[in-house]
Give the backbone structure.
Amino acid sequence: MKEKTTDDLKRELMSAADIDAYIKENQAVFVDKTVIELLGELYQRKSVPKATLAKQAGMSEVYVHQVFSGRRTPSRDRLLCLCIGLEATLEETQRLLKQAIYAQLYPANKRDAIILHGIVHHTSLSQINDKLFTEGEKTLF
């Protein structure tokens, strides 16, 4: 089965006469994982020790463990730091932001554009923060 894009799903939803049929037809594509589950899957794929992740994300190991155990919910900026620390792709980062009900990175926003560029080019968190600071934008931490 061909994977459906968000635009595909939106078109189907808008043209569907019956919501029940739409739900039944698209049950397999609905995201039913929590942010923590998605983050955990990403962490498993990247196989980075949590101590290394904490350092690369500019966080304490305790905080990282609390996030992965579900005891803490990261803010948008903290989630971005984790994505940068995990060297997540732009698509993985946007999916996590969307699932957390945070604004996705938007290239028409200067701060987001700097972060986007850093993610795409695997720039370190400290370099991204330096550029944000130089441009008069709020740093990620």
Notes: The CA atoms of residues 77 and 140 lie 5 Å apart. The radius of gyration is 17 Å.
